[in-house]
Amino acid sequence: MVKKVISFFVFLLSWVSLMAQGDGSAGIAEATQMVTSYFDPATKLIYAIGAVVGLIGGVKVYNKFSSGDPDTSKVAASWFGACIFLIVAATILRSFFL
Fold first, then answer.
1. Most buried in the list 10, 12, 41, 42, measured by CB within 10 Å?
2. Transmembrane region positions (predicted)?
3. Residue 96, SS3?
4. Is the Cα torsion angle 26, 31, 32, 33 positive or negative in sign?
């Protein structure tokens, strides 16, 4: 009886491993297609975030300039750099992965 149960489980495990054989290329292709389909909306989202950051930065720089703050150029450069970074990062990531 014990031999039959052990034989059954050995057969079952070998059958499961045989049924699981495959190269997985269909799964890899599907995953690649899913990941690449996310890049266009993500790029547009990053561009929108860059636009909002640019608007906020423009208002902050204008307020500092209007009040006569001496470090206006430093603040303007940092906000401008943040906007440029967002746009360049989105473009490079999109061109690198697609």
1. 42
2. 44-63, 75-97
3. helix
4. positive
Instruction: Report how far residue 97's alpha carbon sits from residue 90's, in angstroms, rounded to the nearest whole number.
Output: 11
In which residue are the tokens 């307020």 written?
A: 63
Is residue 50 a contact partner of residue 80, using CB atoms and an 8 Å limit? Answer: no
Token pair, residue 17, equals: 């491993």
CA 31 to chain centre: 14
What is the C-alpha separation between 55 and 61, in angstroms, rounded?
A: 10
In tens, the pLDDT along 18-63 reads: 555 566 677 788 888 888 888 888 888 888 888 898 899 889 999 9
Given pLDDT bands bounded at 50, 70 and 90, which one contains residue 12? low
- Report the C-alpha gap between 60 and 65 in whole angstroms: 9
